[in-house]
Amino acid sequence: MNHEAWQGVQRLLNDYANVKPDDRVLVVYADDSAEQAAWICVALECQGIVFQRVWMQPLTDKEFQARLVSALPPPDSFNGRLVVFTLERDTLSHHVALRRALAPFEPSRCSVFRMINVCEALFSSALQVGPDELSARNTAVLERALVSSRLRVESPGGTRLSIELDNSLYRWVSNRGRARPGGTVVLPAGEVATFPARVEGVLVADFAFNVNTITDRDARLHAYPVTVEVKEGRAVSWTCANPDAKEFLDMAFSSPCVRNVGELGFGTNVGIRTGLKLNSHINERCPGVHLGFGQHNQNPEQVGYDCSLHLDLVARGGLVWFDEDPEPLNLANLVPSSNPHPDSPRDEDAFSPYDTDELEDCCGVMTCDGLRLASH
User: Fold this and answer.
1) Whose C-alpha in 72, 77, 219, 241 is 20 to 30 A from the C-alpha of 274?
2) How far apart (Å, rounded) are the C-alpha atoms in residues 26 and 305?
3) Residue 356 pLDDT more than 80?
């Protein structure tokens, strides 16, 4: 583990989770994340925090809930909070089992942090920026977007998009490493997103893709950018000089609903500077603009369709003009806002153990629970 990764572990415990000596911690991990789970356990031991490790098999694990319950302390046996970290590489599994196991704990005494795409880069890049700074950066986008109806987006790679918003109908989502009481924090953090009422133009994705299927394809696009022409909110043509990437796009867009633009997103995590080969949310949080094709981030009845696939195509950087304001927002050099984060955006929270109106995800792998996880 390098110095930056160890810093990320410390930031996770101290800035994101704010772990205190009277808290109890569960580190829930899959085999693909065992090394990073060990880092967290070492850091907890150094701080004198009482913790338990719980192994899980991703997606299908009939004994997981029983193992989890056996590791939980009685709620009246300690004075602090129960802090739960889950670590997986490609999935976020066992939502229902977690919800049932944690039901005896009051929401105010239980904090859940679900980490996807766990690898060294999650700690050495994505977790280098804390939730306070991410909240301020998200606010800088939202305080202008929430009062606007038209956007114009341009990126250095050639993206040129004209976008209409309907903020009275479609809610924004803000992933900033914070959750409301009883909610769940999904990491990596650093994004604001909504469903665009209308999109026209060209997206040049020159950073990476992120798709909600398990794939070993190289997700980086800097050497072979993807160009998508969008008309009336749908992809009508797409090109890429890499034949394998073009074949991948052809397969993804073979379903008509996948051609729908289901998401307009802005990454805000300045700790992410280099694209990863790994198909990951880390790439998606890069400062820049992305469009998500297929599944959306709203209730299906509001949008009028549902879809099992979600494909994010990410452009690095970009300038965003709001309505008639001549001063654009520079996504690559975003000035954090000093204003409070708006209350109206939804947290990225598909996993709340106390939320009976469970939100479905637009970009997580399907689990045996029948839920799509890692919602935007």
Assistant:
1) 241
2) 38
3) no
Q: Distance between CA atoms of 39 and 249, rounded to whole angstroms?
A: 37
**Cβ–Cβ under 8 Å, residues 291 and 203:** yes
**Helices and strands counted in the chain (H then E):** 9, 19
The residues spanned by each domain of the chain are 3-124, 130-178+188-346
Beta bridge partners of 31: none
Does the pLDDT at position 374 exceed 90?
no
Nearest 5°: the CA angle 233, 135, 18 is 135
Residue 353 has pLDDT above 50, yes or no: no
Q: CA 160 to CA 189: how far, in whole Å?
A: 26
Could you read off the pLDDT of 122-142 as tens digits, one per residue?
A: 999 999 999 999 999 999 999
Question: What's the CATH code, domain 3-124?
Answer: 3.40.1830.10
What are the two backbone dihedrals, phi and then psi, of residue 330, each rounded to the nearest 5 degrees?
-95, 105
Mean of pLDDT over the chain: 91
Question: For every residue of 128-177, which 3-state class applies, written as one string?
Answer: HCCHHHHHHHHHHHHHHHCCCCEEEEECCCCCEEEEECCCCCCCCEEECC
The pLDDT confidence band at residue 180, using thresholds 50, 70 and 90, is confident
Q: Which of 286, 304, 309, 307 is nearest to 363 (CA)?
A: 309
Cβ–Cβ under 8 Å, residues 374 and 120: no
| CB-CB neighbours of 42 under 10 Å | 13
pLDDT at 240 over 60: yes
Q: Is the pLDDT of residue 368 over 90?
A: no
